[in-house]
Amino acid sequence: GCGLPDNCTNRDAAPASWRRDLIAKKKERKLAHANHAQRPLLIGICTGFIAQRGRYKPGAVTDMSPAGCPHVNGFKVDNWKQNLRVIYQCFVWTRKRKAKSCICHMCGAHLNRLHSCLSCVFFACFAKKHIHEHAKSKRHNLAIDLLYGGIYCFMCQDYIYDKDMEQIAKEEQRKAWKMQGMTRTHTQRHTHHVKAKYSTWEPTKRELELLRHNPKRRRITSNCTIGLRGLINLGNTCFMNCIVQALTHTPLLRDFFLSDRHKCEMQSNSCLVCEMSQLFQEFYSGHRSPHIPFRLLHLVWTHARHLAGYEQQDAHEFLIAALDVLHRHCKDDNGKKANNPNHCNCIIDQIFTGGLQSDVTCQVCHGVSTTIDPFWDISLDLPGSSTPFWPLSPGGDGSALNGESHATGATTLTDCLRRFTRPEHLGSSAKIKCSGCHSYQESTKQLTMKKLPIVACFHVKRFEHSAKLRRKITTYVSFPLELDMTPFMASSKESRMNGQYQQAVDPFNNDNKYSLFAVVNHQGTLESGHYTTFIRQHKDQWFKCDDAIITKASIQDVLDSEGYLLFYHKQFLEYE
Amino acid sequence: MSKDSQMRAAINQKLIETGERERLKELLRAKLVECGWKDQLKAHCKDVIKEKGLEHVTVEDLVTEVTPKGRALVPDSVKKELLHRIRAFLAQHATL
After folding, report:
1. Residues of B at the A interface, defined by Cβ within 8 angstroms
2. pLDDT means over runs of 10, chain A (576 residues)
């Protein structure tokens, strides 16, 4: 591609100066490729230029601001600007399209691309040519499309683009959008706080210059391996390498760092976020030789003392420590220091932080005390551990939804999640002070998900460190490629409590659906072991990252692996 | 106007008044982007422009060429969901 925005279909969003630059650049390219046969330039062209027949002079670098057509001059008299503004405000950029008045004056239809005559009060459909009849009989040459605001000239027989009229259209649209942003919230299913209309990216003059001077373009094909890079083991550092592989392949995190969004305010050279940024640059540089993460290791030792030393550490501990340091070194969107755990809006919190709801129910008065705590990962107990793991009957909610079979009797991830979210009787030795009963009573406690993070990390507790023994539990846990977290949500639990046991699964609700994108595995024993990671590229390709060695893996390889840390990414992202 | 078109007009009026038409449009927009329909049509538009030549093609040309394809490419699941929503709406406003 030529690097120009491939997405400017909204002609209203592009200012005239950018169009000038765009055409100038295209002319340059065209002149440079003079040997090639004349081909129409298509990439990144606004529909605006399609209409400018007769105005487009190939080869000449002219001022290409939209000059409309000669027929608008008849319209541009008296108080035309104000009149036009009123039309845009009341009939075009309005959500509450006046049902009664916006119909065709000839046939009464609402749809059929309704247009309004610009010279008199007359609405008519375009599709049935009613507005054309009006234009002919009254000699009113101009009409406006009530849906998109385009101005049609019946003499030119096409939509025309006049600079002044475009300006008015855009201003009114921006005003209307701002107003609607305040009132939109209660009409949507989820609250939307629309502050400004989304407009597609347009290159600035400087960016166009840079693009011109750097003609080399990098294309991502479906089988390119950019983003894959091995990591040298610096002495039992596979616990760090495996997490780095998972993080560098977390899509949102990758996008954040590759678009240079970190503005560092730390004075010293010890910002872990900066180092992370560097790491992404290394991974996406295209170099195939393994990277040596000595700076990262040093920073980790500096900021997370408990992980220092050349002993093998726990990958899960490293993940939490790394997220913690990154979170501390980040600034949130408002530029405030990420000190307040409840109000941080840094990229780490945006991606990884979920809310875990804990409900403690008094067995006597049935009063419920609820707290919500943030979490970065969910640690799941396994059967065979010293904590009681109650085998659940096959089927029931959760497993049918996530397509797992119990034929082999293998424990599944959803089994673990069901156990995690089941009500637990706290026992007579752990009475809680009930605010309803004003005394200590026995109670049950239940954990559910209140808010799901964009990236959900499940930690399978394979390493047992109890007073009696230290061992690794190697029970195979089967985990799915796609996971639906709906049964484990706080809202689902409430529905169950209200008697809606067999909740109809809403196939249209995509909020809680996740896809697996990274799996960290541990081979060996507690004393000596090795970590590797499976990561996902290009939707369906998986690769195994074993320190410096990257090999292609099959989906089956991934699903057959033991599973220690499982990384899932939300399938559908919502605007907040 | 026939009884059919009278009914259609009444339903449309109700949809607009209650704001349901806007909601349905937003839903449809989101679904069509999600399933890649918008991108497919954009590509088709580019092909049409290539064919007709930049200097000669009009908006009408595009509309004529693209409308039938656009209609055909809407996935069944999207149609189903919207029908479901409209039916639910009609059930609510049974007095029509």
Report:
1. 1, 9, 12-13, 16-17, 19, 22-23, 26, 34, 42, 46, 49-50, 53-60, 62, 81
2. 36 48 57 40 31 36 58 85 89 69 80 85 86 87 89 89 87 82 50 55 86 84 83 91 95 90 81 92 89 90 81 89 89 50 77 93 88 94 70 45 52 90 85 82 90 94 80 89 91 71 59 92 87 90 94 94 95 66
Instruction: Say whether A110 and B9 touch across the interface (CB within 8 A).
Output: yes
Distance CA A555, CA A449 (A): 28
Specify the residue for token string 């995190």.
A253
Closest listed residue to residue A73, CA positions, set A172, A160, A158, A144: A160
Q: What is the pLDDT of residue A311?
A: 76
Separation of alpha carbons A330 and A141, rounded Å: 58
One-letter amino acid for residue B24 of the chain: L
If one compares B13 and A258, the residue with the highest pLDDT of the two is A258
Q: What is the pLDDT of residue A282?
A: 92
For residue A43, the model assigns a pLDDT of 30
Distant-in-sequence, close-in-space partners of A39: CB < 8 Å, separation ≥ 6: none
Q: Which of A158, A188, A508 sits opposite B59 (nearest CB)?
A: A158
Residue A287, chain B, CB below 8 Å: the answer is no
**CA separation for the pair A102, A114 (Å, rounded):** 8
Q: Tokens at residue A390, please? A: 């109650």
B29 pairs with which residues across the strands?
Answer: none
Q: What is the pLDDT of residues A37-58, one digit of tens each?
A: 333 333 333 333 333 333 333 3
Using the Cβ of A254 and the Cβ atoms of chain B, whether some distance falls under 8 Å is answered with no
State the CB neighbour count (10 A cutoff) for residue A510.
14
ipTM for the complex shown: 0.73
Strands A439-441 and A411-412: unpaired
Instruction: Provide the CA A3 distance to its chain's centre, in angstroms.
Output: 23
* Overall pTM > 0.90: no
Closest CA to A94 of A106, A104, A102, A103: A102
Give the 3-state secondary structure of A480-548: CCEEECHHHEHHHHHHHHCCCCCCCCCCCCCCCEEEEEEEEEEEECCCCEEEEEEEEECCCEEEEEECC
Name the token pair of A473.
């539990």
Residue A497: what pLDDT? Answer: 67
Q: Give A-chain residues touching B59 at CB under 8 angstroms.
A: 47, 50-51, 150, 158-159
How far apart, in whole angstroms, are the C-alpha atoms of residue B14 and residue A110?
A: 12
Our separate counts of H helices and E strands in chain A read 15, 23
Q: Check residue A569 and report its DSSP letter.
A: E
What distance in Å separates residue B94's CA from the closest CA in chain A?
20
Whole-number average pLDDT of chain B: 86
* DSSP E strands, A118-230: 123-125, 142-145, 151-153, 158-160
Whether chain B has a CB inside 8 Å of the CB on A354: the answer is no
Collapse the DSSP code of A294 into the 3-class scheme (helix H, G, I; strand E, B; otherwise coil) and give the result. helix
Contact flag B81-A508 (C-beta cutoff 8 Å): yes
